[in-house]
DNA sequence: TTACTCATGTAACAAGTTACATGATTTA
DNA sequence: TAAATCATGTAACTTGTTACATGAGTAA
């Protein structure tokens, strides 16, 4: 069963066509996640695993830095589709730092809670702006993931506003 | 800097008061995440790290199975608050399996896309029901995280509906 | 007394991270 | 020619996973 990184690598190579591992890595580098860096150690290792499993094929370009272009094999495509369309995995909550922290914020004293929530709200608002800006540079396919990240931030902001409102009543 | 698991452990012990590692582990076991199991190997190791760092203190109960009750020290509370209120970490997108897959779904042929999206939608709907049911058993503090998980699923369902609508127009 | 739950943990493994090393190619 | 970027990777480490072992307490 593919890991999230392996699935994402297959998806990236499949979408953009022949790519070097370096290019794949660069695509992940500006991904809006603190939890997932797409670091060299992880990406090169995952590419090697996928190659060994027959899901990626490599084509040498013949240049002196041993550049290898990756492409997805039919077996890789099948595995990727299975990975992408498994509803159980697709709807998993994943790891949501905001959600994990939400209960703690509600336990704070009124003044500290207000301060914490407004600080987090501001950060979310800034990130939302950045995402909306970033989305403009992307095509429909790539925009989907940015759009969902933006909706997540909007949902969080909305949640904070409801909290602030509830507690303001007292 | 605390990991997400370490932060969550401190939060759990802090919220419920003196707990055994076993109890903490059980609380995480029914957490709605495929990515995060709160497995024995992880939780016992994390508790040991926190104890060693002076963030958790242990109290022997004196029974013959060496039961140890955990509580959060002042240093642990400080670290937990810093972890919880760091806006940078709190608003991170985290790892969202749905978001990672979204671009792939849009690349499918109309019929496969329809099938994939409706299957995922049904799963999300079922999960939403389960979450809403689960939320009823929880108090305000604990409900926050369940509520946010439910909102996430609602947002995903909404996104799917928009996709289906957009493509139905052709 | 049998089975279940409470409670501790370890061992082998998987899959990330940072930080570094190495050298080719391109651009200012 | 100097600096930046492209491109490959490895080594040491961290943190998680599954699967197992061990035994105490409790309820049928």
Summarize the structure.
The structure is a homodimer of 170-residue chains. Chain A has 170 residues and is mainly α. In chain A, 69% of the residues lie in helices and 6% in strands.
Layout: helices, strands, pairs:
The structure is a homodimer of 170-residue chains.
Chain A: H1 4-16, H2 21-29, H3 40-52, E1 56-60, E2 68-72, H4 74-85, H5 87-90, H6 97-107, H7 110-135, H8 140-168
Antiparallel strand pairs in A: 1-2
Helix pairs in contact in A: 1-4, 2-3, 7-8
The structure holds a DNA duplex (28 and 28 nucleotides).
Description:
Two copies of one chain form a homodimer. With 170 residues, chain A is mainly alpha-helical. The first copy, chain A, has two domains: 4-90, Arc Repressor Mutant, subunit A; 97-169. Chain A is built from eight helices and two strands; from the N terminus they run αααββααααα. Chain A has helices at 4-16, 21-29, 40-52, 74-85, 87-90, 97-107, 110-135, 140-168, and strands spanning 56-60, 68-72. Chain A has a two-stranded antiparallel ribbon with strand order 1-2. The mean pLDDT of chain A is 94. At the A-B interface, α1, α4, α5, α6 and α7 of A face α1, α4, α5, α6 and α7 of B. The structure holds a DNA duplex (28 and 28 nucleotides).
